[in-house]
């Protein structure tokens, strides 16, 4: 793997989605590329929107909603938002754009209404084998976490 592929792999696969500091930096960089505020030899504005769509929710949402107003990026942003569930109050921003006549925002709203995010997933297996641990008394996730046995890292 060359240096460019390595750097792209780090950006795509090694920066966690969500709302931690690394996700904030990743979303900020990708948003800047999408808006044209900065450029990257590895990430085009279209690829930036596509990657923002993989971040599940959090810092990526505003740039995706903003991209609904860009004719070149809107189809990619609409596809990404159609499969993003962690929208919280940002739902109303998409709704507002749809009511104002933005066709891509309308597509997103319709996609959510049709539950495409759910129906596009592979069907569940006919049979699923699981293991159940029965614990007497009261238990919670702390009992299952490696945190008490770790000396460093996020779970401290």
UniProtKB/TrEMBL annotation:
SUPFAM superfamilies assigned to the protein according to its UniProt record, in alphabetical order: Aconitase B, N-terminal domain, LeuD/IlvD-like
InterPro entries in the record: Aconitase/3IPM_dehydase_swvl, Aconitase_B_HEAT-like_dom, Aconitase_B_HEAT-like_dom_sf
GO BP annotation list: tricarboxylic acid cycle
Location of the Aconitase B HEAT-like domain: 2-118
GO molecular function: aconitate hydratase activity
Domain of life of the organism encoding this protein: Bacteria
Protein name from the UniProt record: Aconitate hydratase
Organism (species): Salmonella enterica subsp. enterica serovar Urbana str. R8-2977
């Amino acid at each position: 793997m060359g240096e460019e592929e390595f750097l792209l792999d780090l950006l795509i696969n090694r920066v966690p989605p969500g709302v931690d500091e690394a996700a904030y930096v990743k979303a900020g960089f990708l948003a800047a590329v999408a808006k044209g505020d900065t450029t990257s030899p590895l990430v085009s504005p279209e690829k930036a929107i596509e990657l923002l769509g993989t971040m599940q929710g959090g810092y990526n949402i505003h740039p995706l909603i903003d991209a609904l107003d860009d004719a070149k990026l809107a189809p990619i942003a609409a596809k990404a938002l159609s499969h993003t569930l962690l929208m919280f109050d940002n739902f109303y921003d998409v709704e507002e754009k749809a009511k104002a006549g933005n066709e891509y925002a309308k597509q997103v709203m319709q996609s959510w209404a049709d539950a495409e995010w759910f129906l596009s997933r592979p069907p569940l297996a006919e049979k699923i084998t699981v293991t159940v641990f029965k614990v007497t008394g009261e238990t919670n996730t702390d009992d299952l976490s490696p945190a008490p046995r770790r000396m460093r890292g996020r779970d401290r």
